[in-house]
Amino acid sequence: MSYSIGEVANITGITISTLRYYDREGMFPNMERSNGGIRMFSDTEIETLQIIECLKTSGLSIKDIKQFLNWCQEGDDSLQKRRDMFYERLEVVEKQMEELQKTMNTIKFKCWYYDTALAAGTEETPKNMPVEEIPEEIRKYRYKCD
Amino acid sequence: MSYSIGEVANITGITISTLRYYDREGMFPNMERSNGGIRMFSDTEIETLQIIECLKTSGLSIKDIKQFLNWCQEGDDSLQKRRDMFYERLEVVEKQMEELQKTMNTIKFKCWYYDTALAAGTEETPKNMPVEEIPEEIRKYRYKCD
DNA sequence: CTAGAACCTGAAGTTAGGTTTAGGTCAAGA
DNA sequence: TCTTGACCTAAACCTAACTTCAGGTTCTAG
């Protein structure tokens, strides 16, 4: 089963020009073409795209993702490198989750802050509120600034 | 109490050139200068930097962050806008956390995959392993690609 | 056979978010 | 007073990751 670039764009939500850009960068080393030169994406390329998305989210650059995909072409000799890369990603993503959680807490504090301000009609109300009156869960995320 | 740009760089980990860039972009509308023209950061600016970091992590651009800081200057008239912005951020960050969790799961699968491959000396081992033998927690995150 | 939708290429353009450079000025200690 | 490390500006530069453009080819439905 094979897909045209337009179909892949629909399936994955990645634009056609991005798919062509990835191809230009060598992300699909085994992709076939029709006689007329039209790209034929297979399930392999769809799976590669899922890994690309995963690695991109984990903070890897296109260049480094390409490096990984090259290792995949090399076979078992590169197993150690590939393993190490994923363990490194694991740590990075753990850090990202922690940071995102802190961000979330700050945002929740701000939501409370502005709800309180709007209810009172003025920002002075939450700004001057004694700490004990701030809901416990968000108390410690208080910043003085607006 | 006020801080030089170098001190702020040390405190926050943000480079001096980035701090000057933020200033150029108007992120510190109330920052004072010494007679000689040297920036004097106060606690207000430090707090603004914390909010900038928070909003940046939540996916807002510098331009939009500046927009928010402008609203803060406007006083209570902009309370609703600011509230809405934070509720929007709340949703965005929730989506980000979900995506990061999926990414994490995929990476954990890959860690298992490569550990198994390395133990066996070949990728064929995890690749051909029947689903029942894959640890339960990660089973569903399996991708066929390397 | 033909129209038009979908595809192709190489090259240039875009955007965000900084960083670097060049040429100065400021401020605190010896 | 002098030095020297920290600071200043404007403007040019940089990079990643795409996107757009111009001009041409392929494929498919009627």
Overview of this protein structure:
The first copy, chain A, is mainly α and 146 residues long. Chain A has two domains: 1-74, Multidrug-efflux Transporter Regulator, Chain: A, Domain 2 (Orthogonal Bundle), CATH 1.10.1660; 91-145. Helix content of chain A is 65%, strand content 3%. Chain A is built from seven helices and two strands, in the order ααββααααα. In chain A, strands 1-2 form a two-stranded antiparallel sheet. In chain A, β1 and β2 form a beta hairpin. The longest helix of chain A has 42 residues, at 79-120. The mean pLDDT of chain A is 95. Chain A binds a DNA duplex (30 and 30 nucleotides) through residues 4-6, 15-18, 20-21, 24-25, 34-39, 61-63. Chains A, B: This is Transcriptional regulator, MerR family.
Would you spell out the secondary-structure blueprint of this structure?
The structure is a homodimer of 146-residue chains.
Chain A: H1 5-12, H2 16-24, E1 32-33, E2 39-40, H3 43-57, H4 62-74, H5 79-120, H6 124-127, H7 136-139
Antiparallel strand pairs in A: 1-2
The structure holds a DNA duplex (30 and 30 nucleotides).
